[in-house]
C-alpha cells in the first residue's frame, strides 16, 4: 500500500527535512532521491543534505510489504549574504557551520566545522574592504577569519586573526551549490580539510 509524506518542515538552499508515517513499529525504510537509494533508516524522518539550491527533488521512502511514501522536496534559492549583516556560514555538503572553536578570543584559534546551532561563534559578517572585497568578522570576538600565518596557500588552516592585512580579504562567487568564499590572493576557496582539531574537522584553503 501507499502512504503520504509530510511536506518539508524545514528547508534551506541545500537541505530539507521530511517526515513520513510509520509502516509498522519495527520497520526499516529505504530513502531514494530522484530514483537513487541514498540511505536506510529505522526513523520516520530524514534530513536530506548536499542538495542544489532552487531545485526540486522527487523523494520516495520504501519499506517491506509494499509501503511507499512519496513527496517532492524543493530547496530554497541560494541567498547571497548581505554585507554588514550577521549570517551562518554553512557547508552545502554537510549542513555544518563554520565555528570559532570554543569562542576563544586568542589569535590563532581554529575555525572548525561544527553542528549548525547559530550561536555567536558561528555568526560572521562580511565587512566591505574596497573593490568588492570583504573582511570576515566573528560576532563572538570581533576578529577575522584568516589563513594561518597570514599565508593564503592551499592547505592552510583557517584561524582567527587580525583584520588589518590586505592578504586576508575575501570575495564571494556564485557556484552550483550556493556561494564560495575565495581569497583575493591565490583565488583559493574555504573548504573542509582532512585535519582534525579535537573532534572537529578544520576549515582550510583549497584549490577551487
Key structural traits:
208 residues, single chain, 18 strands, 0% helix, four-stranded antiparallel sheet, mainly beta
Describe this structure in words.
With 208 residues, the protein is an all-beta fold. Helices cover 0% and strands 46% of the residues. The strands form six sheets. A five-stranded mixed sheet has the order 1-7-6-3-4, with no helix packed on it. A four-stranded antiparallel sheet has the order 9-10-18-17, with no helix packed on it. The protein has a three-stranded antiparallel sheet with strand order 8-11-12, with no helix packed on it. Strand 17 (189-197) and strand 18 (200-206) form a beta hairpin. The chain is elongated. The protein starts with a strand and ends with a strand. The model has no long low-confidence stretch (mean pLDDT 92).
Summarize the structure.
The protein is an all-beta fold. It is built from no helices and 18 strands.
Give the end-to-end Cα distance, rounded to a whole number of Å.
47 Å
Radius of gyration: 20 Å
Number of helices: 0
Mean pLDDT: 92
Structural class: mainly beta
Strand content: over 45%
**What pattern of helices and strands is seen along the backbone?**
EEEEEEEEEEEEEEEEEE
Morphology: elongated
Strand order of the largest sheet: 1-7-6-3-4
- Which bin fits the share of residues in helices? under 10%
* Uncertain stretches of 5 or more adjacent residues: none
The count of strands amounts to 18
Main sheet record = 5 strands, mixed
Amino acid at each position: 500500500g501507499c502512504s503520504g509524506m509530510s511536506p518539508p518542515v524545514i528547508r534551506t538552499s541545500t537541505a530539507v527535512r521530511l517526515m513520513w508515517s510509520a509502516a509498522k513499529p519495527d520497520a526499516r525504510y529505504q530513502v531514494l532521491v530522484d530514483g537513487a537509494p541514498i540511505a536506510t533508516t529505522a526513523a520516520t524522518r530524514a534530513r536530506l543534505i548536499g542538495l542544489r539550491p532552487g531545485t526540486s527533488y522527487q523523494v520516495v521512502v520504501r519499506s517491506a510489504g509494499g509501503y511507499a511514501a512519496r513527496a517532492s522536496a524543493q530547496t530554497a534559492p541560494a541567498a547571497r549574504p548581505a554585507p554588514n549583516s550577521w549570517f551562518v556560514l554553512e557547508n552545502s555538503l554537510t549542513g555544518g557551520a563554520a565555528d570559532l572553536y570554543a569562542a576563544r578570543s586568542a589569535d590563532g584559534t581554529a575555525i572548525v566545522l561544527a553542528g549548525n546551532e547559530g550561536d555567536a561563534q558561528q555568526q560572521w559578517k562580511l565587512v566591505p574592504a574596497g573593490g568588492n572585497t570583504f573582511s570576515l568578522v566573528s560576532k563572538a570576538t570581533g576578529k577575522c577569519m584568516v589563513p594561518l600565518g597570514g599565508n593564503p596557500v592551499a592547505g592552510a588552516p583557517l584561524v582567527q586573526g587580525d583584520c588589518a592585512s590586505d592578504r586576508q580579504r575575501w570575495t564571494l562567487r556564485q557556484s552550483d551549490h550556493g556561494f564560495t568564499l575565495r581569497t583575493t590572493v591565490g583565488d583559493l576557496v574555504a573548504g573542509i580539510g582532512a585535519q582534525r582539531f579535537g573532534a572537529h574537522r578544520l576549515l582550510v584553503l583549497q584549490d577551487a
